[in-house]
Amino acid sequence: VEYWEEWTAAPGGTWNVNSLMIRVTHSNSGPAAANNITAGRIVVTHAAPATTTSIANGNWNAAGTWNNGVPDLTKVAVVDGETVTVSTTTDTGYQLTVSSGTLTISDTQLLTIGEGGVQINGGTVTLDLRGDLTCTGGDTTVASGATLNIGSNNVKEAIYTATGRTFTSAGTVVINSSGAPALTCATINCTAGSVT
Questions:
Q1: CA within 20 to 30 Å of 181's CA: 26, 35, 40, 74, which one?
Q2: Cis peptide before 181, with omega less than 30 degrees from 0?
C-alpha cells in the first residue's frame, strides 16, 4: 500500500493517514529566499502483515502452535485444521482467519483482533462462558458451513465486540450468552444460514 501527499506551498503542518501521523517541519536557516519550501512529496509505504498458520493443537500464545511465531498485531493468524485455545487476556492478532478446525476462547479470557478483522471460513469459533473476542478495526464474516458460538449453555456472559464494524454471516451463529449485549457491531447482515 502506498500513500503520497503533494503540496505546492510550505505545509507547516500535519497529515493524518489512518493511524499514521507525518509531521513536516522546516528550520529557518540561511538567506530568507532559500527558506521557503515550494513543492515536495512524501511517500509512505505499509508492508503487508506476515501470516502465521496453526500447525499443531495448542494455546494461542505457544510458539509450537504456529509455523511463523505467535500471532500479534502485526500478523494474520490462520487456524487451519487444528484446535487452538486462547488462555490469556493478552492474546492478539492483526487478522483472524479460521479455515477449518476449532478456535476456543476460554472462560474469562480475551482475544483482540486488529485492522484485518475476523474471517470464519470454516470450522468453529467458540467464546466459552465469559470468553471475549474484540475486533478493533476490521469487519467480521462467517461463511457458509462455518459456526460461531457466543457463550455456552446459557451460563455466563460471553461477548463479541466489533464496535462500528459490519458483521456478515452466511453460516451459523449461536448466541448462548445470558448476558447482554452478546454481540456488538454497527451492522448485521445475515445473507444465509441462521442466527439463534
A1: 74
A2: yes
Neighbours of 62 (CB within 10 A): 14
pTM, entire model: 0.74
Residue 159 makes CB contacts below 8 A (sequence gap 6+) with: 127, 132, 133, 150, 177, 179, 181, 182, 183, 184
CA angle centred on 58, ends 103 and 160, rounded to 5°: 25
Taking only the tens place, the pLDDT of each residue in 133-155 is 888 888 889 899 988 887 765 55
Q: Are strands 58-59 and 91-105 parallel, antiparallel or unpaired?
A: unpaired
- Kindly tell me the sign of the dihedral angle through the C-alpha atoms of 133, 113, 79, 110: negative
- pLDDT per residue as tens digits for the range 158-185: 677 887 888 888 888 887 766 556 777 7
d(CA 172, CA 192): 9
The alpha-carbon radius of gyration of the chain (Å, integer) is: 22
Would you say the C-alpha torsion 185, 92, 124, 128 has a positive or negative sign?
negative
